Amino acid sequence: MKAYMTNGTGDFLAKLATKHPQMTIHIMSSGGGSLAYYEGTNKKVFAAGRTYEVLVQKGDLQEEGFVAMNNIPVTEEGRPVFEDRFKNRKHEIDNMPGFQAFRLLKPMTGNVYVVLTQWKSETDYDNWKNSDSFKKSHDESPTKPPAYFADRPFLTTYYMKKDE
Fold first, then answer.
1. What is the 3-state secondary structure (H, E, C) of the chain?
2. Pick the residue with more confidence: 46 or 164?
3. I need a labelling partner for 41 at 20 to 30 A (CA). Which of 55, 86, 131, 145 fits?
4. Which position has the higher pLDDT, 31 or 113?
5. Mean per-residue pLDDT, 32-61
6. How confident is the model over 56-85, as pLDDT tens digits?
7. Tally of structural domains, the chain
């Protein structure tokens, strides 16, 4: 399965979603703008978007919630190690209160993977980040990033925007 994303104004992305009613296009917003996201086997409908292969999927994306996307640049030679780490994850996040969905997205072009998690609320996400489970699953040395990182990872967060 593929995942597709594009950025734009909320109004533009809402019109795009209306133009393709046969697809479930999720509109998300943040202080920095809006993002449209959909999954499927359909052809790409975003003229200027990003395409990913969904490598790991847990749960269904909901119309309401908080989304955290960890954007992780990975070296070419580090891809198998990085992907294997997530394919063999312990799934503790799946049992956290407020957890809704998880995706590991492999870029079709470029080197920035996206680890997408959706939560019922931002508080649920913060509780996960402060949990012992989080600390165990992120048990890397805090001073040195993993060798497969091509650059510093960065986080983008969004709130799901309901149709109006």
1. CEEEEEEECHHHHHHHHHHCCCCCCEEEEECCEEEEEEEECCCCCCCCCEEEEEEEEECCCCCCCEEEEEEEEECCCCHHHHHHHHHCCCCHHHHCCCEEEEEEEEECCCCEEEEEEEECCHHHHHHHHCCHHHHHHCCCCCCCCCCCECCCCEEEEEEEECCC
2. 46
3. 86
4. 113
5. 89
6. 999 999 999 999 999 999 999 999 999 998
7. 1
